[in-house]
Specification:
Elements (H helix, E strand, L loop, with lengths): L1 H33 L4 E3 L2 E2 L4 H31 L6 H25 L8 H25 L8 H28 L2 H8 L7
Antiparallel strand pairs: 1-2
Helix pairs in contact: 1-2, 2-3, 2-5, 3-4, 4-5
């Protein structure tokens, strides 16, 4: 019986990973449509709602599976935009995933325990850490490979504000859903996360 449980768990996580990637891809496409007027460049917007989904994937699925979910969502976006051979697009996915894992890891080290899904303060702190790391890592990468010679401080600020806006809105919505639905118990039963009411 124990053996069958262990076999089922990776399949269930794989399905959750696929669902996380599809939600991420859908949110990215919806963000392009909803906030088209706030786009600074094709890669930067003053509001980027999927930024919290990168973190939510980690919170729900854990660092490994959550990172795979975000990476798969990034791959879906690359292929939807016909950039499959564009190395910069793949580096952007890597930077996005790395930023989320770094923020998650730093917060775990700071609080010395699992992140509570219902503590808005912790999720906002996670969003803030992510907002510092993600644009910084992207701009370091872009400068190192000289991908965008026209990037500026304005672009960096816009990316940071966009990530923060999306992550804060996502955090508030995430806490509300976890507190007011059965999602908290369902998630807790499938992955090891700390749930405080």
């Amino acid at each position: 019986m124990r053996f069958s449980y262990l076999q089922a768990m990776p399949f269930e996580k794989a399905l959750l990973m696929l669902l996380g990637s599809l939600v991420y891809t859908s949110a990215h496409l919806a963000n392009l449509w909803l906030f088209d007027f706030w786009e600074v460049t094709p890669n930067i917007s003053w509001v980027y709602l999927p930024s919290f989904l990168r973190l939510a994937n980690l919170l729900i699925l854990g660092p490994l599976w959550g990172t795979f979910a975000t990476a798969l969502g990034g791959a879906e976006l690359i292929f939807l935009s016909d950039q499959g051979l564009n190395g910069l697009a793949w580096l952007n996915v890597l930077a996005s995933c790395s930023s989320a894992v770094a923020a998650y890891g730093v917060l775990r080290l700071m609080i010395h325990r699992p992140i509570a899904l219902t503590h808005l303060k912790e999720l906002l702190l996670l969003a803030g850490l992510y907002t510092l790391i993600n644009p910084s890592l992207h701009f370091i990468l872009w400068q190192a490979i000289q991908a965008y010679t026209e990037t500026s401080l304005h672009d960096f600020v816009a990316m940071a504000v966009g990530d923060l806006a999306g992550a804060v809105l996502g955090s508030v919505l995430f806490v509300w859903v976890v507190r007011h639905t059965g999602v908290a118990q369902w998630v807790a039963g499938r992955v090891l996360v700390k749930i405080d009411r």
